[in-house]
Amino acid sequence: MSETSCNAAKGCLMSESGERLELPPPLRSLLEPMRRWLHLWGLPGLDQHISIGFSARLRRALARCYPRRRRVILAASLQEASPLLEEVLCHECAHLAAYELYGDACKPHGPEWARLMESAGFTPRRRVVLSKSEIIPGKGRRQYVYIHSCPVCQTQRTARRAVGTWRCPCCTELGLDGLLEISKRLVRDEGES
């Protein structure tokens, strides 16, 4: 996995190999607001223990938070100076703060989390619905369907992955081996509009 992380207080990124890298300007500019939010929430100094990373593997979500590990992973596409970056980082920091203040007792998007978001000046929302102009371009992913066909009786079965253990029930009932031929067909290319 290509991932980099930073210790927010040190203002640097660390690669998987432990190499020190400079923080990208969008994240560097958010260190001060993050410290301000944490201070506002009664957790000054927590930024010393938070690890923030970018990952290209996040495609459906803009970020993930792991409160016990004090870790936030942001979608790599947010590095492109996205206007959403500040709100997304605040959203994830509010999860960390809610966990630090209330422990496991609070729900991920419960009233405690919502109060933290409001006090930071953001509308508490679980999901960000993007307009066409705000959609962050990704690499796109092709989606395939696998067609499992019986060469004897022409029965077909489809799946999102190839399943080599499937057999034709009609043919196996007649005492045949029931082996299916598997072919792959492109259903949708997310890179296309």
UniProtKB/TrEMBL annotation:
Residue span, SprT-like domain: 25-178
InterPro entries referenced in this protein's UniProt entry, alphabetically: SprT-like_domain, SprT_Zn_ribbon
A Pfam family the protein falls into: SprT-like
Coiled-coil ranges from the UniProt annotation: none
Signal peptide: none
GO biological process: response to stress
Protein name: SprT-like domain-containing protein
